[in-house]
Write a structure and sequence with these properties.
Number of helices: 16
Bound molecules: 3-methyl-2-oxobutanoic acid, zinc ion
Number of strands: 16
Largest sheet: 8 strands, parallel, barrel
Strand order of the largest sheet: 2-3-4-5-6-7-8-9
Structural class: alpha/beta
Radius of gyration: 25 Å
Shape: globular
Length: 501
């Protein structure tokens, strides 16, 4: 009989814990909707007690997601569990995930609690969560470094009070495939009531083994894998969804009767979305989703692939929705070439959206000789996720140099009127941001600023992603242009507009 391996996606919780990857509720929802299209089974949408923003994000995802389960994380305390329940209660399939560390290191240095106390808290918290809903997952945090006998005891006790999924985390990425597989087998053989639950695993990538460890666990009886898109997460990250799913797909001879519900063709699109919204670039050599994953440089490889792709490719790029750069568009390209490329990229836009995107495409083609897929993705991104432009850039001028203080003059449209201001700054970008602050009368702190080239060539578009902090609120902005100053202004206004909207 075929058996399903549940894909529990924690991109929006553990993934988002990666330093600098914060997402707002709207962005989380956007990722969640794409995860649903991808076919994951459970979305861990956040840690509701952590902040009002995270509570709102989990609640928003819970309301909108119809096919997958939606889970909120909680420590083993009533306050955490209450918040998790309140955030997920309107989901079609709500789940609360309670965790409590069990390893000697965590017991001694983090919790300062003896084994008995840990056991009692674990049982009490699961019992408490059960009052709200049936679907409770329990994680003995740092399970991979916990004494096995104690781990069996905790696991057995929480199953007795109704936990439905037991997740075994390798919290610090300490284990290796053989040892972790053995641990799962030992849990199966030594916990008498284990057949009542799904065994899950949650691996971190500190030794680069998270996916291998997860797969080994699956071969030894785990039937849920916790993972993230692009492997993002705390420190070196979590096990990456695309690696686990595609390894099971390619190695059907080993994962014989096991399957996942993932629509593999959505993998690259999901990867791009997560990368864009978190601002975490995918390394070019990243398995499955990296820019070079299906590129062949050496003549021998190119020749082999042209003769027969399977000589050097174990996966057909189309099976993961990897788009090989096809025709390059330019200013003479017509609407037909434009729309058919959009379709190839997997986008179905309304006529109005196509019309507006086409105008932007033509504008860009006037500035840039060749338009690559990544350029199109930026246009689409702006079109689909349009933020209402309360402040809209009309024009800007800068004077800068190594012997003068940079100055900027900017005109923005606000409430139907043009408003202008001038300012100087430490550099031209700083001068522009100060000028905008004068117009908006807001004084956000710039807490992050990144600039990267979207494609290649001297006329490549620059994309700026930045983070503004204002009154304890963090807002991300993104803007792109062939002119990096303009990209910076657009990114700054994008964040400001999100704030004022
Ligand atoms: O890594 C970890 O142990 C976790 C738990 C909360 C499951 O993220
Ligand atoms: Zn984790």
């Amino acid at each position: 009989m075929d058996e399903k391996v549940v894909i529990f996606d924690t991109t929006l919780r553990d993934g988002e814990q990666a330093p600098g990857a914060a997402l707002n509720p709207q962005e989380k929802l956007e990722v969640a909707l794409q995860l649903e299209r991808l076919g994951v089974n459970i979305i861990e949408a956040g840690f509701p007690i952590a902040s009002p923003g995270d509570f709102k994000a989990v609640e928003t995802v819970a309301l909108k997601i119809k096919k997958c389960g939606v889970c909120g994380l909680a420590r083993a305390t009533r306050k955490d569990i209450d918040a998790a329940y309140q955030a997920v209660k309107k989901a079609k399939r709500p789940r609360i995930h309670v965790f409590l560390a069990t390893s000697p290191i965590h017991r001694k240095f983090k919790l300062n609690k003896a084994k008995d106390e840990i056991l009692r808290l674990a049982v009490e918290s699961v019992k408490y969560a059960k009052k709200y809903i049936n679907d409770i997952e329990f994680s003995p945090e740092d399970a991979a470094r916990t004494e096995k006998e104690f781990l069996y005891k905790v696991v057995e006790a929480v199953i007795d009070v109704g936990a439905k999924t037991i997740n075994i985390p390798d919290t610090v990425g300490f284990t290796e495939p053989q040892g972790f597989g053995e641990l799962i087998r030992d849990i199966k053989n030594n916990v008498p009531n284990i057949d009542r639950v799904v065994i899950s695993v949650h691996c971190h990538n500190d030794l680069g083994l998270a996916s291998a460890n997860s797969l080994s666990a699956v071969l030894n009886g785990a039937r849920q894998v916790e993972c993230t898109i692009n492997g993002i997460g705390e420190r070196a990250g979590n096990a990456s969804l695309e690696e686990i799913v595609m390894a099971m797909w390619v190695k059907k001879n080993i994962f014989k009767n096991l399957y996942t519900t993932i629509n593999t063709k959505e993998i690259c699109k999901t990867s791009r979305l997560v990368s864009k919204l978190t601002g975490f670039e995918v390394p070019r050599n990243k398995a499955i989703v990296g820019g070079n994953a299906f590129r062949h440089e050496s003549g021998i490889h190119q020749d082999g692939v042209l003769k027969e792709a399977s000589t050097y490719e174990i996966i057909n790029p189309e099976d993961v929705g990897f788009i090989i750069e096809g025709i390059v568009l330019g200013k003479h390209s017509g609407r037909h070439a434009f729309t058919s490329r959009l379709e190839k990229l997997g986008f179905k836009l309304s006529q109005k959206q196509i019309d507006e995107a086409f105008i932007k495409f033509k504008d860009l083609a006037d500035k840039k000789k060749e338009i690559f897929d990544d350029d199109l993705l930026i246009i689409l991104d702006e079109e689909i996720k349009k933020v209402k432009e309360i402040y809209k850039l009309q024009s800007f001028e800068i004077t800068s140099g190594n012997k003068i203080k940079p100055k900027s003059a900017i005109i923005l449209k606000f409430e139907g009127k043009n408003v202008c201001a001038e300012s100087s700054g430490d550099g031209p970008v700083d001068a522009c941001f100060r000028t905008i602050d004068k117009i908006t009368k807001l004084t956000p702190k710039l807490s992050d600023y990144k600039i990267s080239a979207v494609t290649h060539g001297k006329d490549a578009q620059g994309e700026v992603t930045l983070k503004l902090t204002i009154k304890n609120k963090e807002i991300f902005g993104r803007g792109s242009s062939t002119d990096v100053i303009e990209a910076s202004i657009k990114a700054y206004l994008n964040a400001i507009n999100k704030l004022v909207v």
